[in-house]
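Title: Request for sanity check on Glutamyl-Q tRNA(Asp) synthetase prediction

Description:
We are preparing a figure and want to confirm that the structure record we downloaded matches what your pipeline produces today. Could someone re-run it with the sequence below and paste the raw structure tokens into this thread? We only need the token string, no images.
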Amino acid sequence: MRETGRFAPSPTGPLHAGSLVAALASWLDVRARGPQARWLIRIEDADTERCLPGMGEHILRQLADCGLLPDEAPIWQTQRTERYEAALARLQALGLAYPCGCSRKDIDEALARLGRPHTRHGERVYPGTCRDGLHGKPARAWRFATEKFESAQPALASGELCWTDRRLGRQCQDVSREVGDFVLRRADGPWAYQLAVVVDDAEQGVTDVVRGEDLADNTARQILLQRALGLPTPSYLHTPLVRGADGDKLSKQNGAISIDTATPEAALAALDTAARVLGLRAATAASCAPALAGWVPEWRDLYNSRP
């Protein structure tokens, strides 16, 4: 299979320093593998309530200003609804997806009764309330039957799913205990990130996922879905995060400022800042293209990419 990487931004705001780190890392990882490898862009606009009009196009312009151009035309999740519907239907047919009528308040109250109250920034572990039916409540979401799937997998007999990250090393998670039955689709329409990303990566032939470290704990869930749907599992590399003054991850939600790519000099400065976060040397070139070319062999040495 042709080696393929991708950058998949959500158009909820412009690219900021943290998202440029992920974009640069995924681009370098592909280019370090030689001219036959592909770098793709996917605009993850499935959650239409959070996405801003015209922001996908704006992000593509920012990337182009930095010299980060895809090898094929970008795809948009809002144009792929039928693929996600087919995947959900398959999981339903396998008995691995069920409707849930619980609100967040319902889940919090159930967890409190179990002596496991939800804490801020902690995972809201679904307690399985609707596994045996809706009990007269309207469906609010479809959930993946995690425990049911794991119990049928001999490789998961220990309760933990383990995988190896190219930067972080061996990672393990007991999804049933640490996450519970996670959402595949909300009743009001938007597709959950977990299902959409698994379907898209498989259809695009993505062999290597390079993304921010904050998404590492999503990986076990995605591997479960890949196995349930009979899809291949790519390799994973999770990059360092850019953090704000308070130590939290820099993000659109906490006021991250858009990168400036209005001039070639500004675009190069933004790339150089991202490269430093990734452990690369400061750019010595005067423009983006030669700076990017200079970082490719350095990335290969750091992350052992195949030439």
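Thanks, this matches our download. The radius of gyration is 20 Å.
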